[in-house]
Records
---
Amino acid sequence: MQINHRTGAAPTVVERTFGPRKAPQVAPVLVEDTPVPGLVIAPVVRRALLSDGWRFSGEWTVLHAASGLSALGAVGALGHMREAAALLNRPGLDWTRPTSELTASPGVKELLTGLSARVRAAVAESRPAQLRDTSWQVRPPLWVVTLLDSDGKVVETGACRTYTDAESEAVSYGRALDRTAHADWKVEISRGIDPEWELSCAWRPCGDALTDPESGFPFRHPDRAGLVADALEQGWRQLDQRRVLCPVCSDLFTTPLPAY
Ligand SMILES: [Zn+2]
């Protein structure tokens, strides 16, 4: 791994308010910026169980930078909080304003209550909040190029995604033939019967397709169970019968176990 030693802008530090409401603590915290002005992501600290100190819980939360308070009251994996910041980015909602002005804006409390429930449900299930209905995408059947001998027996077949590719394949079959020995052999182009399927990441903003590592193209296959097996082998995670997460999203949306 190449470490970037360039010195650019300094990391952002905010005054974080944490701990019980009756006796809040305030401390400077290094945070991750988000694309939403006024919102940042910070590590979660909790009271240690066995000592008087504080501990990192392994979770993250979205902070309202101006107040240092949690914007949504939800904690989760880094992916959950990056997604939460994006969900909090609403027209007319300026997160650089003070808390008193934000909470006085009409509809803001309802928005935060609804989003908080949505993010908490996602955290509880270790999955993103913004899921596609399905990871499956159906593709038309392939074009099949068949080389037949003089008795009509199949000598060789090839499959192509477009008719143009199938034509080129048919021409190359013809060129490779010994014309004197196989004068009455035939090359046919036909449409396959079964549609093919592709599998893509169920997190809406991602949508990466499961690809063949050798060709770099998306895997396509009529056998859906086979595709799921390939995906699991490549580190994808199955959420349900219709949805899978790519390895990056799977890691980003795996809720950390509580640390003690
Ligand atoms: Zn993904």
Note: The CA atoms of residues 40 and 191 lie 53 Å apart.
---
Amino acid sequence: MPVERLSTGVPGIDGMLGSGIPRGFLVAVTGEPGTGKTIFCLHFSWQGVKEGDKVVYVTTEESRESILSQAEQFNMDLRGAVAEGKAVVIDALMGRASDQWSLRSLNPEDLVEIVLKAKRYLGYGRARLVIDSMSAFWLDKPAMARKYSYYVKKVLSRWDFTVLAVSQYAITTSEAFGWGIEHVADGIIRFRRFVRSGVLRRYVMVEKMRQTPHDLRMYEISIEDGRGLVVLRPGDMRAEDVALPPKVVERMVKAKRREEEAL
Ligand SMILES: Nc1ncnc2c1ncn2[C@@H]1O[C@H](COP(=O)(O)OP(=O)(O)OP(=O)(O)O)[C@@H](O)[C@H]1O
Ligand SMILES: [Mg+2]
């Protein structure tokens, strides 16, 4: 049977994936700050609304209001979808007791509980979930990344969710927040940024997608007001432009070893 794929809402990225993300997958969306992870997740969510999917968006770095306003800048009426009961935005930043869709502690059991509550509220059917970001759940204990990701994937896959889990990538601190999740995830979509000739350029690459003959090239992207994320053309980076400096890699390996020993 052919694999059913969900459009990401960004035609250029669907093209890199041979039409989309296989239903039921958990895909890690990784990258440095400001590279387009949240905006990509908004496209995925809005596409879900347009296709009649149940959409749940968990936001840990920005408030619900910030997410809804950002979506508006790209003509995605996520606010309307929430009002009509087609989507739920769970606020894990500004959580208030009076708000039933707020998450006030960042632990995976509570996350799963509120996501399932949202799914029951939205009703039966194909569903999309964004966790932006998943790294927030293991910020003070990065060695738990793999265990938490595995737990979330295992429970939610039974509920017909296709999941985007954002994982931040902080080379400056040598903390590899994404490592655990990158092995558990069915796919990895990696955003990057470089400054070239004094201009910030952003790129995207599919680093992994099980069951998919995906594009292996890195593409330059732009983020445009009113439109959102647009895939431009394959990038012309040299290996030394994209490789992490050996010293950083060494520090990451050491940090990971220390965490594992501490467990
Ligand atoms: N209306 C807009 N028009 C054009 N560019 C925009 C607009 N809104 C945001 N951007 C660009 O998108 C960037 C933010 O992208 P996004 O929020 O997806 O990053 P991110 O990868 O999620 O970062 P973080 O890890 O910090 O959450 C901004 O820094 C800005 O460059
Ligand atoms: Mg973000």
Note: DSSP finds nine helices and eleven strands in the chain.
